[in-house]
Design a protein that fits this description.
The protein is mostly helical. The protein has six helices and no strands. It has two domains: 35 residues; 64 residues, Orthogonal Bundle (Hydrophobic Seed Protein), CATH 1.10.110.10. The termini are far apart. This is Bifunctional inhibitor/plant lipid transfer protein/seed storage helical domain-containing protein.
Length: 118
């Protein structure tokens, strides 16, 4: 292996390490941003509204139907925005102990129509 090849390999290693560091930093920023969103509510639903819906979307022993407070919270929600969160199941479980599939069924149980592309 020539000195030029060794130098090129070192540069490649440095570039790869920097790229991995940037990816890790981006992941941390995204997680912290998601945490901040959850702490203040999501998609025009306050934290209290999310808690009102928790029993009907609970991971264990959910109630059969959402409460009136839950349906009121969902009536004012940005349902298109909620659709963007449906694939972030770990966040819902971690903060609210909510099953994503049950949560996504709540608007229908409240008589609300989910967006077609959800």
């Amino acid at each position: 292996e020539s000195q030029t090849e060794r130098h090129s390999n070192k540069i490649d290693t440095i570039i790869m390490a920097k790229a991995q560091s940037m990816a890790a930093l981006l992941a941390v920023v995204l997680v912290l941003g998601a945490s901040a969103d959850v702490a203040h509510g999501i998609c025009n639903i306050s934290s209290g509204g999310i808690r009102a819906c928790q029993p009907a979307a609970a991971i264990h022993n959910p109630t059969d139907a959402p409460s009136a407070d839950c349906c009121a919270a969902l009536a004012g929600a940005d349902l298109s925005c909620l659709c963007r969160y449906k694939n972030v199941g770990a966040m819902w479980v971690r903060f609210y102990k909510i099953d994503v599939k049950r949560a996504m069924a709540l608007p229908r149980k409240c008589g609300l129509a989910m967006p077609a592309n959800c």
